[in-house]
Amino acid sequence: GIVVIYRDITERKIAEKAMVDSEERYRTIFQTTSIPIWEDDYSELMNAIEGLKEQGVTDFRR
């Protein structure tokens, strides 16, 4: 008999394309600029702070 296995990899392909696009974007930026660039991503920290706020924590200091 014949066995056919099908797996939808659409989401994986979309993620791979996004990664390639991102790598190309940053590669172009770094190869064409003559000044140093630093980028920080504080999204995880902000998510943690929002979670604490949802739990009622209010005594944050700046």
The figure for the number of domains is 1
Largest sheet: none
User: Which range does the strand content fall in?
Assistant: under 5%
The parts where pLDDT drops under 50 for at least 5 residues are: none
Radius of gyration: 21 Å
Tell me the series of helices and strands, N- to C-terminal. Answer: HH
| Number of contiguous helices | 2
Average pLDDT figure? 92
Separation, N- and C-terminal Cα atoms = 69 Å
Number of strands: 0
What would you call the shape?
flat
Would you mind describing this structure in some detail?
- By secondary structure, the chain is mainly alpha-helical.
- 56% of the residues lie in helices and 0% in strands.
- It has one domain.
- It is built from two helices and no strands.
Brief digest:
This protein is an all-alpha fold and 62 residues long. The protein has one domain (10-54).
Give a topology summary:
Layout: H1 10-32, H2 43-54
How would you describe this structure in keywords?
62 residues; mainly alpha; 2 helices
